[in-house]
Design goal:
Mean pLDDT: 96
Low-confidence stretches: none
CATH topology: TIM Barrel
CATH superfamily: Aldolase class I
Radius of gyration: 18 Å
Order of helices and strands: HEHEHEHEHEHEHEHEHHHH
Number of helices: 12
Strand content: 5-15%
Length: 303
C-alpha cells in the first residue's frame, strides 16, 4: 500500500465526507460564489471532508473548466477533498478519468473517487493512479455492482485507500464489500443512504453519502451516536435519518439529487434559482412539498 493511500485512509477514518451537489440553474449554469457558500456551509455544519463532482455533484456532465473551478473552491476550505473522476460512457473514459485525476492533483485534492466502469476497472484505476498519483477510493455502485474478484484486485492496488459501497438495497453485497475492504487493510466507507445505520454496525469506518448534501448535521449525529456508548441515542438518530432517506432516496432513485437540492434551498444553503438538477428525471407534482414536510417534522425534537 502506497504511503499516500495509507495516509488518506488514516485521515478519513471516522470522517463524514459530504457528497456535495453542484448548485446550478435549469440551464446548467454554475455560480462559483454560490458553490463556495454551499460547500462552506456543509463543513460548518458537520462535514469533515468533501466529495465534489461525484454522482451527487453531476461531475461527468460538467466541463473541465467548471470542474477545475469547483475543485479550487472546495480545496480552499482546508478540509480533505475527494474528486469524482470518470463516469462517462464509452471507451473514452480510459483517457478522460486519468486527465481528471491529473487536474485534481494539480489543484490540491486529497484523493479521487473513481466511478465504476463497464470496461476493465482494474486497468482504469491503474491509469488514474499513474496520471495523478492521488490515492483512490474505489466505488461499488448500485447501477454497476463490482464483481467480488474484481473488488479483490482493486483492494490490492497500492493506490487504493478505501472502497465506498453504495448498493442501496443489497445488504448482503454491502456486508461483503465492507468485510473485503477491511480484510485488505483499506478504509470501508459507507455510501449507503438507505442502510446507513446498519452499514456502520456491519463495520463501515467512514461515510461518504449524498444524504449529507443537505441536513448534514442529521447525518453527523448518527456517526457521533455510533461512536458513543448510548444505544438509544444511536437508534433515535439513525431513525430520523432513515425517515429522511425514505423520501429522498426513493424511485426514481436518480431523483435524489433534485430532492437534496430542494432541501438545501429550504435550509438556505443555495438560492432557489440554483437548486435545480437538469440531469435528473422528472419528478411528480407535489413531491417537493412532501419531502419538505418530512424534513421539517423530523427536525423537531419530538420528530
Amino acid at each position: 500500500m502506497d504511503i499516500s493511500a495509507r495516509n488518506l485512509r488514516d485521515r478519513l477514518r471516522g470522517a463524514l465526507i459530504a457528497a456535495a451537489a453542484t448548485p446550478m440553474t435549469a440551464s446548467g449554469e454554475v455560480d462559483l460564489d454560490v458553490v463556495s457558500r454551499y460547500l462552506a456551509g456543509l463543513v460548518a455544519d458537520g462535514a469533515s471532508a468533501l466529495a465534489v463532482l461525484a454522482h451527487t455533484g453531476r461531475g461527468p456532465y460538467l466541463t473541465p473548466e467548471v470542474r477545475a473551478a469547483v475543485i479550487g473552491r472546495a480545496v480552499a476550505l482546508g478540509v480533505p477533498v475527494l474528486v469524482g473522476v470518470g463516469g462517462s460512457d464509452g471507451p473514452a473514459v480510459t483517457a478522460v478519468a486519468p486527465e481528471q485525476a491529473r487536474v485534481a492533483a494539480e489543484l490540491g485534492a486529497a484523493g479521487v473517487l473513481v466511478f465504476p466502469s463497464a470496461h476493465d476497472r482494474v486497468a482504469l484505476h491503474e491509469a488514474v493512479w499513474r496520471a495523478g498519483r492521488l490515492p483512490m477510493i474505489a466505488f461499488d455502485l448500485y447501477t454497476m455492482p463490482c464483481p467480488e474478484g474484481t473488488m479483490r484486485e482493486l483492494l490490492a492496488h497500492p493506490g487504493v485507500a478505501g472502497l465506498k459501497t453504495a448498493l442501496l438495497a443489497d445488504a448482503v453485497g454491502c456486508q461483503r464489500a465492507i468485510a473485503l475492504t477491511r480484510e485488505a487493510g483499506r478504509l470501508a466507507i459507507t455510501g449507503e443512504d438507505r442502510m446507513f445505520g446498519p452499514s456502520l454496525l456491519w463495520g463501515a469506518q467512514a461515510a461518504l453519502v449524498g444524504i449529507a448534501a443537505a441536513n448534514v448535521g442529521m447525518t453527523a449525529d448518527v456517526l457521533r451516536a455510533h461512536r458513543g456508548s448510548g444505544l438509544r441515542a444511536f437508534e433515535e438518530a439513525s431513525g430520523r435519518l432513515d425517515r429522511l432517506a425514505e423520501v429522498t432516496f426513493t424511485e426514481p432513485v436518480e431523483g435524489y439529487v433534485q430532492r437534496m437540492l430542494w432541501l438545501a434551498a429550504a435550509e438556505g444553503r443555495v438560492p432557489e434559482s440554483h437548486a435545480v438538477d437538469p440531469y435528473g428525471p422528472p419528478l411528480p407534482a407535489g413531491e417537493r412539498a412532501a419531502v419538505l414536510r418530512v424534513a421539517d417534522r423530523i427536525s423537531r425534537p419530538e420528530g
